[in-house]
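Renewal narrative, Specific Aim 1. Our central claim is that a sequence can be written position by position from structural information alone. The example that follows is taken directly from our test logs and has not been curated for this report. It begins with the structure tokens describing the chain, in the order in which they were read.
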């Protein structure tokens, strides 16, 4: 991508409305724009990051055996009347009428709709287990939307829903998502700790919130500090192994970890004082097992091996991609801007032409740009005629992991500078060596 032809509206001044660093940096880097309160456009740079986050989420959901579909944002009120949640949900639900005066709503979550899909076509235990997910916009008319896309009214959610014949089978489905979540957040460069959680309006029996520790987090959390160094399930994890997944779950729930709603002061005080961590956190994921809470009122049942009908045991599993992007920034930035983990960086590398219009600089940059693009890298080429200082500031602000800097003096020697955004270390090397670093 040539910056001269891209759309990346950088702000020079700090936006006054931004209270936390991630919101400030997302606005300054031209990643998002607020359209009305708590409702955002994702501008091209932001969209790239969001897509990368979603690709990792999708990859890990698929690995764990979940199947992707797509459900609509608008739902009929009827389904919610069946479950009893139409009245219970309250003011967070955006209620709409169509031209026939039929009550509709903008989905805040999808338990009812997915249960309807399930009951219309699954009749036998032989079709279980089943886990269906989508990545879709949701709307909740939050009383206090704030911190940019961290807490917005319209937001994206990956929501998965599992269906099983028995409680035991449902617990295995829960453990699959539990392990998938650990892997997902790790690949996003984050350390998320599963904490016992309140089941809230979704209702349920077993529930964990995945929390990232951050000073700007809205939740108050308490946990054992060893969680910070626990091993993440690797890519040989067998998601069909009931025992294997149970042992991951047992290990990751063996020490104290709870959000303030579930906090047990006495149990926490039993943790040796030096191991206690009480901090603030950002909820990036939430998983529930809720048994037959929706399958019973909505009549979602299958024939079991005993020939009888059984209401299915369900769970639901949410991750917030549009919250994760600012959460990653909260965890990874410095005074100059964002520092993206390579896995979600909008571009793998930025090529900075320090003197656009200078033949040698232009030729060198074009050569590098073409070679890296051909190698399948996402390359941003700053070919604008801005001052070098402005270009460096922009490159640092948008947080691309590696910068290749081509200035007249180095280029005359057949060299460029390669800068690591995170460490700030700059190395001078031949043009060929700079290319090979990515192509090899
Ligand atoms: P919170 O306690 O932060 O209001 P919640 O418990 O209501 O969230 P869930 O129903 O568990 O949220 O939704 C699953 C995930 O969706 C959350 O873990 C979070 O990542 C994301 N999410 C929920 N509400 C919002 C929001 N208003 N803005 C952005 N992301 C959200
Ligand atoms: Mg929650």
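The sequence written for that structure reads:
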């Amino acid at each position: 991508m040539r910056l001269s032809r891209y759309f990346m509206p950088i702000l020079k001044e700090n936006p006054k409305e931004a209270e936390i660093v991630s919101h400030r940096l997302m606005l300054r880097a031209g990643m998002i724009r607020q359209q009305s309160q708590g409702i955002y456009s994702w501008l091209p740079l932001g969209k790239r990051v969001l897509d990368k986050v979603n690709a990792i989420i999708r990859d890990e959901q698929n690995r764990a055996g979940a199947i992707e579909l797509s459900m609509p944002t608008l739902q009929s009120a009827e389904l919610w009347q069946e479950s009893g949640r139409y009245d219970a949900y309250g003011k967070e639900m955006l209620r709409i009428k169509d031209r026939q005066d039929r009550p509709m709503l903008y989905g805040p979550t999808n338990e009812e709709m997915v249960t309807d899909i399930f009951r219309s076509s699954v009749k036998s235990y032989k079709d279980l287990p089943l886990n269906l997910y989508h990545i879709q916009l949701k709307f909740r008319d939050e009383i206090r939307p704030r911190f940019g896309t961290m807490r917005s009214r319209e937001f994206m959610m990956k929501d998965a829903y599992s269906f099983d014949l028995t409680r035991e089978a449902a617990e295995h489905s829960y453990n699959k998502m539990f392990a998938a979540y650990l892997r997902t957040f790790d690949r996003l460069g984050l350390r998320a700790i599963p904490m016992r959680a309140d089941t809230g309006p979704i209702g349920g029996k077993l529930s964990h919130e995945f929390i990232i520790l951050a000073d700007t987090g809205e939740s108050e959390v308490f946990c054992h500090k060893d969680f910070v160094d626990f091993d993440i399930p690797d890519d040989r994890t067998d998601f069909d192994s009931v025992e294997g997944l149970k042992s991951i779950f047992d290990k990751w729930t063996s020490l104290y970890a709870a959000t303030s709603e579930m906090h047990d002061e006495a149990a926490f005080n039993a943790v040796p004082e030096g191991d206690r961590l009480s901090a603030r956190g950002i909820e990036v994921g939430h998983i529930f097992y809720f048994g037959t809470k929706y399958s019973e009122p909505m009549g979602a049942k299958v024939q079991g091996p005993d020939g009888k009908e059984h209401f299915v045991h369900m769970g639901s599993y949410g991750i917030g991609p549009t919250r994760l992007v600012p959460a990653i920034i909260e965890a990874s930035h410095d005074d100059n801007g964002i520092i993206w983990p390579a896995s979600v960086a909008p571009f793998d590398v930025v090529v900075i032409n320090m003197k656009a219009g200078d033949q040698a600089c232009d030729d060198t940059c074009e050569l590098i740009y073409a070679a890296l693009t051909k190698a399948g890298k996402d390359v941003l080429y700053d070919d604008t005629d801005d001052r070098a200082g402005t270009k460096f500031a922009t490159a640092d602000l948008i947080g691309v992991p590696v910068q290749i800097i081509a200035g007249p003096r180095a280029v005359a020697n057949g060299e460029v500078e390669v800068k690591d955004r995170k460490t700030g270390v700059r190395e001078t090397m031949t043009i060929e060596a700079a290319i090979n670093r990515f192509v090899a």
